[in-house]
TrEMBL record:
Its main location: membrane. It is found in: Cell inner membrane. One of its GO terms (molecular function) is acyltransferase activity. This is Lysophospholipid acyltransferase family protein.
Length: 291
């Protein structure tokens, strides 16, 4: 009982800074609130030693010779953008209604429309890059509601807000694990669309190059696409320089070959995006740990 109370207290303490920023800015407009959280997280990334060490360790995997000043600038910019992304996810119901913020292009969009017309499911693959919820916002606005796979948060405050946010973006929301996988298969076989972020470390995965370094990666998305003959479409919501609008690119479906080659094709696709806009990717994922 005492242990549970201590855990609950620690959850409250960890959530308090975020709650404070959200509360202090709640009477402002959407953009001002978004930027307030972005500034707060940018400040943490600028001054908090554990965050600095973690970021520097990860960035050196890809840019070992990047000067310290450039690392610091990239770290702050990433923090600001990720703070805005977090705010938009927590307020996804409001975010989804702002259609004027999104522009969509790319051959993958037509492929998804064709799958929808044929009553087939589809798999949209992306990463923690830009605003990935902008991808589902575009699809939902075009009558292609798309569910998502997510990893449960250990802090129950973050878990509650995260789940509510991503549910507003489209259903079903499926938790990683055996039960979630079974529900995912049923959803796809019934003609549903699902979005999967493939850039997190997957302990049971295979080592596939990502940004030039081997990284433990799940083959599940490609395996499902092959097994059920579904399009696997990379899609990215890049944040524009104004900070509040997004260019959503739906790349051509990855050709069906084998699961390893298809997953490598996605890794290469996302890697190219990150190298072009490195401050739009969340560098704190510990992507190469254990690889």
């Amino acid at each position: 009982m005492l242990s549970r109370k201590l855990i609950s207290l620690w959850h409250h303490i960890r959530y308090l800074p975020l709650l404070s920023v959200l509360t202090m800015s709640r009477w402002r407009g959407f953009d001002m609130r978004s930027r307030a959280l972005g500034s707060a997280i940018g400040t943490v990334l600028r001054w908090f030693p554990p965050a600095i060490r973690r970021f520097d360790r990860e960035i050196r995997h890809v840019y070992p010779d990047m000067p310290r000043r450039d690392r610091a600038r990239l770290r702050r910019n990433m923090g600001r953008k990720m703070g805005q992304t977090l705010f938009e996810i927590y307020h996804c119901a409001e975010f989804q209604t702002q259609h004027g913020r999104f522009s969509a292009s790319g051959p993958g969009l037509l492929a998804l429309e064709n799958a929808k017309a044929a009553g087939k499911g589809a798999i949209i693959v992306s990463g923690h890059f830009g605003q990935w919820e902008a991808v589902r916002a575009i699809l939902k606005s075009r009558d292609m509601e798309t569910g998502a796979v997510y990893r449960r948060q250990s802090n129950h405050h973050y878990q509650r807000r995260l789940l509510a946010g991503i549910e507003a973006g489209g259903k079903p929301i499926l938790e990683t694990g055996t039960l979630g996988t079974k529900a995912l298969v049923r959803h796809l076989r019934n003609g549903g669309f699902i979005a999967i972020l493939l850039d997190e470390k997957y302990a049971e995965g295979v080592r596939i190059p990502f940004l030039g370094r081997p990284a433990l990666t799940s083959l599940a998305a490609a395996q499902l696409a092959l097994k059920y003959d579904l399009p696997m479409v990379p899609a990215y919501g890049t944040r524009n320089p104004d900070g509040s609008s997004f260019k959503v690119d739906f790349e051509a479906p990855i050709p069906h070959t084998d699961a390893m080659a298809m997953t490598q094709a996605f890794n290469d696709s996302l890697s190219a995006r990150i190298r072009t806009d490195p401050d739009q990717w969340y560098w704190l994922l510990r992507r190469w740990k254990g690889a």
